[in-house]
C-alpha cells in the first residue's frame, strides 16, 4: 500500500502547470470551486451519505436507502440555509440517481418555462418547498423520440370547464418517468389537446396523481414501478414508473398556457411565441446533459489514471520494481485522449450554458432568432457527448484490466448509471438527424436575405471555403524512443504527461 501511495505522490509532484489554477478553470470560477469544494467535503464527512455498500443492496433496500438520503439532504439544505447553487451541488455529490431528480431538473423548469405568471405563482412555491413532488411524464410505452406520436389525450369539456385526461390504449401508458413509481404527487403530463373533435397537438398539463393526505393514487389513476433495470445499483435506486389515466378530470387552469391557451368558451388561442418553446424543457435538460458528460467522463478517467499509476506490470530488471502501466505508450494512447476529451466537454458545456441563457433572455423580449440554433446545438452535442462518454467509460474499464470489472472499482456502476443518457431526452441517432435537417435548411437559404449566423456563420463563406485546400505533400515520421515514458529532459518544450496527476489531487475527483 505504501508503494502505491508513493507512486501517486511522485506522479503528482511532477506537475508543470499551476494545479490550483486548473481547478478553477475546471470549476468555471473561483466562486463555483469554493462552493463545490465545501459541499463535497460536507457530503464526504457525513456518514448518512455512505455509498460503499450500494452495489450489495437489494432493490427494496436501495430505494429505502435513497429515500433516507434524499430526506437527510433536504434537512441539511434547510438547516444550513443553502443557496440554490449549493443545494444543487449537494444533490450532485450524493452521487446516485434519486426520485427528486426530475422534480428539480424537469418538473420545476417546465412550469417556469411554459407556465403563465399566475401558474408559476401557484405551483412553484409548493414545488420549491417540496410540499408537492413532481415528475415529467412525456415518454409513452409506444412513443419516445416521436413526441408528435403521443397517444394520451386531453379533451376539453366546456360544460365543466375541465380537461379529461385519458390513456386510450396500452401503448399510451406513460413509461419511464423517474419518481413516478412510488413518490411523485404530481406530473407534467403531455397529451394531445382535443377540442370539439379537433386535434391541436401535444401540450403539457399539471396533473395530480396521488393524494396529499394518504399518498394513495387518485381515482382514475393507475400507477406503478416498471421493474428492475440494467446494472447493480445504478437506476435500480429510482422508482421509474408507468402511469395510465382513466378519464381523469383536471381544471382548465392546469394546462400550461404560456404558448397556447384554451378559453372558458373552448376557443384555442396560439400566442406569438413559437411552438418550439413547448419543448423548451427538453432543450434545457439536453444542455445540462452535455455539461454532465464531462463530470461522468472525468470520474472514469480519474479512476483509470490513478490505477495506471499504481499498477505495475513487466519490465523488472535485477529485482527492481516493474514498470508502471502509465508509462506504456499503448496505455497513454488510449487514456490521455479521454482526459483531453473530458476537458473539451467541460468547455463546450460551459459554452452551451451561455447559449441557452442567451436564448432565454432573448425569448423574454420576444426575440426567437436563435431558438432553432439552440435546439440544433443541444441536440447535436447531447448526441455526441453522451455516445462518446458511454464508450469512454467502457474503455476506462478495459484500461483497468480485470480489476475494472469489480464493482468496487466504481466503473461498472458508473457505466450503468450513465449509458441511459444515450437514449433519454432524445435517441442519439434521431437527434443527429434533427441537426442534419437544421443544416440542410440553413444551406437552402444561402443567398437569401436571411444569412447564417452563430455556429453556422461559416456557411456564408461556403464559396471561399470550397476553394481552400491543404498544401501539405509529405508526412514525416516521428520516431518513438522506447516503451517507457520519456524523461522531462526529452520532452523539452512540452508539458510532461505525468503532470496530469497534479490536477487529480482535487477532492472533487475521489472515485
From TrEMBL:
It comes from Macleaya cordata (Five-seeded plume-poppy). Its cofactor is FAD. Belongs to the acyl-CoA oxidase family. Residues 279-440 form the Acyl-CoA oxidase C-alpha1 domain. GO terms for molecular function: acyl-CoA oxidase activity; FAD binding; fatty acid binding. It comes from the Eukaryota. SUPFAM superfamilies: Acyl-CoA dehydrogenase C-terminal domain-like, Acyl-CoA dehydrogenase NM domain-like. Transmembrane segments: none annotated. Residues 18-133 form the Acyl-coenzyme A oxidase N-terminal domain. InterPro entries: ACOX_C_alpha1, Acyl-CoA_ox_N, Acyl-CoA_Oxase/DH_mid-dom_sf, Acyl-CoA_oxidase, AcylCo_DH-like_C, AcylCoA_DH/ox_N_sf, AcylCoA_DH/oxidase_NM_dom_sf. Keywords: FAD, Fatty acid metabolism, Flavoprotein, Lipid metabolism, Oxidoreductase, Peroxisome. This is acyl-CoA oxidase. GO terms for cellular component: peroxisome.
Amino acid at each position: 500500500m505504501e508503494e502505491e501511495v508513493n507512486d501517486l505522490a511522485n506522479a503528482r509532484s511532477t506537475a508543470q502547470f499551476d494545479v490550483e489554477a486548473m481547478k478553477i478553470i475546471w470549476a468555471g470560477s473561483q466562486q463555483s470551486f469554493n462552493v463545490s469544494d465545501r459541499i463535497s467535503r460536507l457530503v464526504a464527512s457525513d456518514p448518512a451519505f455512505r455509498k460503499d455498500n450500494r452495489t450489495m443492496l437489494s432493490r427494496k433496500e436501495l430505494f429505502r436507502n435513497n429515500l433516507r438520503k434524499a430526506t437527510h439532504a433536504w434537512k441539511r439544505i434547510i438547516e444550513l440555509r443553502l443557496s440554490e447553487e449549493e443545494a444543487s451541488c449537494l444533490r450532485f455529490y450524493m452521487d446516485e440517481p434519486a426520485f427528486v431528480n426530475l422534480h428539480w431538473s424537469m418538473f420545476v423548469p417546465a412550469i417556469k418555462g411554459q407556465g403563465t405568471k399566475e401558474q408559476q405563482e401557484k405551483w412553484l412555491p409548493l414545488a420549491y418547498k417540496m410540499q408537492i413532488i413532481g415528475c415529467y411524464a412525456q415518454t409513452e410505452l409506444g412513443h419516445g423520440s416521436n413526441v408528435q406520436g403521443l397517444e394520451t389525450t386531453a379533451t376539453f369539456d366546456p360544460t365543466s370547464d375541465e380537461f379529461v385526461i385519458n390513456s386510450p390504449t396500452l401503448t399510451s401508458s406513460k413509461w419511464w418517468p423517474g419518481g413516478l413509481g412510488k413518490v411523485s404527487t404530481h406530473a407534467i403530463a403531455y397529451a394531445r389537446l382535443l377540442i370539439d373533435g379537433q386535434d391541436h397537438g401535444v401540450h403539457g398539463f399539471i396533473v395530480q396523481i396521488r393524494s396529499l393526505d394518504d399518498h394513495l393514487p387518485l381515482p382514475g389513476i393507475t400507477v406503478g414501478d416498471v421493474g428492475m433495470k440494467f446494472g447493480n445499483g445504478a437506476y435500480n435506486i429510482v422508482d421509474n414508473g408507468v402511469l395510465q389515466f382513466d378519464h381523469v378530470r383536471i381544471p382548465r387552469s392546469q394546462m400550461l398556457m404560456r404558448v397556447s391557451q384554451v378559453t372558458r368558451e373552448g376557443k384555442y388561442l396560439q400566442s406569438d411565441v413559437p411552438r418550439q418553446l413547448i419543448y423548451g424543457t427538453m432543450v434545457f435538460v439536453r444542455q445540462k446533459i452535455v455539461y454532465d458528460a464531462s463530470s461522468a467522463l472525468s470520474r472514469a478517467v480519474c479512476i483509470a489514471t490513478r490505477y495506471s499509476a499504481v499498477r505495475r506490470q513487466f519490465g523488472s530488471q535485477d529485482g527492481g520494481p516493474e514498470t508502471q502501466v502509465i508509462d506504456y505508450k499503448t496505455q497513454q494512447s488510449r487514456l490521455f485522449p479521454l482526459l483531453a476529451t473530458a476537458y473539451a466537454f467541460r468547455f463546450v458545456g460551459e459554452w452551451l450554458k451561455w447559449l441557452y441563457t442567451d436564448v432565454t433572455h432573448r425569448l423574454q423580449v420576444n426575440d426567437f432568432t436563435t431558438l432553432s440554433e439552440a435546439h440544433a446545438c443541444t441536440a447535436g452535442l447531447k448526441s455526441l457527448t453522451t455516445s462518446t462518454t458511454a464508450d469512454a467509460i467502457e474503455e476506462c474499464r478495459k484500461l483497468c484490466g480485470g480489476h475494472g470489472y469489480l464493482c468496487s472499482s466504481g466503473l461498472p456502476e458508473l457505466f450503468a448509471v450513465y449509458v441511459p443518457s444515450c437514449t433519454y431526452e432524445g435517441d442519439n441517432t434521431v437527434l443527429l438527424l434533427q441537426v442534419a435537417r437544421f443544416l440542410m435548411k440553413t444551406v437552402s437559404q444561402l443567398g437569401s436575405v436571411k444569412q447564417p449566423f452563430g455556429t453556422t456563420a461559416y456557411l456564408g463563406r461556403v464559396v471561399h471555403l470550397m476553394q481552400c485546400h491543404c498544401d501539405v505533400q509529405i508526412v514525416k515520421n516521428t520516431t518513438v524512443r522506447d516503451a517507457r515514458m520519456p524523461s522531462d529532459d526529452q520532452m523539452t518544450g512540452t508539458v510532461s504527461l505525468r503532470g496530469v496527476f497534479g490536477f487529480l489531487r482535487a477532492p472533487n475527483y475521489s472515485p
